[in-house]
Amino acid sequence: MGFRKKNKSPPVLSHEFVIQNHADAVSCLALGLLLGLMFEVTARYAIMFVTVQYNVTYTADDRPDPVHFYEYGPKDLATIFFYMLIAIILHAVIQEYILDKINRRLHLSKTKHSKFNESGQLAFFYLFSFVWGASILSSEEFVTNPTLLWKDYPHSRMFFQVKFFYICQIAYWLHALPELYFQKIRKEDIPRQLHYVCLYIAHISGAYILNLQRLGLILLVPHYLVELIFHASRLFYFSDENKQKGFTLWALLFVMARLLTLTLSVLTFGFGLARAENPGFSIAEGNFNILTIRVGCLAAICLTQAWMMWKFINFQLKKWREHVQNQIPKKKATNTKSKPAKKELSRANFANGAVKFEEGTSPRKRKSKVL
To answer: Are the beta carbons of 173 and 220 closer than 8 angstroms?
Structure first.
């Protein structure tokens, strides 16, 4: 009777050990922060990691209930760190219990396996963020009235949902950096993923710090919808290569999202904030409405949209070339099949040096010459 061979566990604190057990280590750290809330000595420190900070309460004469707003500050870094740990745990759960099981059924190659995992993780995140952001936008008035994007700037006070949304966004994209190591991303894919992860961190953090949360939120929601369609289409493509209709819808919405982003950005920075009643620079008040910052923000958005359009055009050209190359062998195959058919017909019509005619037809007789 044979015994099963046990896989040798990697050495403690080795690269393979850290990669295999990083989710368990992070879970223990997050659990330790939650347990800190149970004791009075550590509760005042642990609460900075778990709950949203900088609560500001206002009481109005026409409203009996107080209104709760939130501002941002350095303590938000602790909250972002905690929810970055939560993102790492959720990433490992989705990978192990959903994506890995699907991968075993599809039997994908290493290249497609890596892209499938990337699209699977991002599809879950984009779906969650789009639904959450759309629910926030449905309760706000600046969707139907774009002037509220710059009216009464600075918008230094946020509702709980808006602030928590931004903290979770920043935490998720920060967690994507160590995941490049934990997920053993291929070296040729690391620069591409670093580009868009750093762009997300820079733009979302910039909107949060510069009190442009309204503009950032209304730009993120349609962008996440477009990205959700792309990664969902890529998942369906990996399961069946004939399913490519989703890429057509994505291409149409991608161009529309870029135009919407540029339009709202130019309106906000070029016209709205430029004509605001209180331009100036004040860190205490959260006012960053000066020409240098406006031009810098608008330039950053325009350059990012141009870079995305350049990548989009190159992607479409690559797909078109692949389609053309796939059509050329098919034409050659049809031509080679048609030529033997003609030869077989010609050989079939000649037998023993005599011509055979179908359907009982005979060759036209020559007229005899009359002498």
So the answer is: no
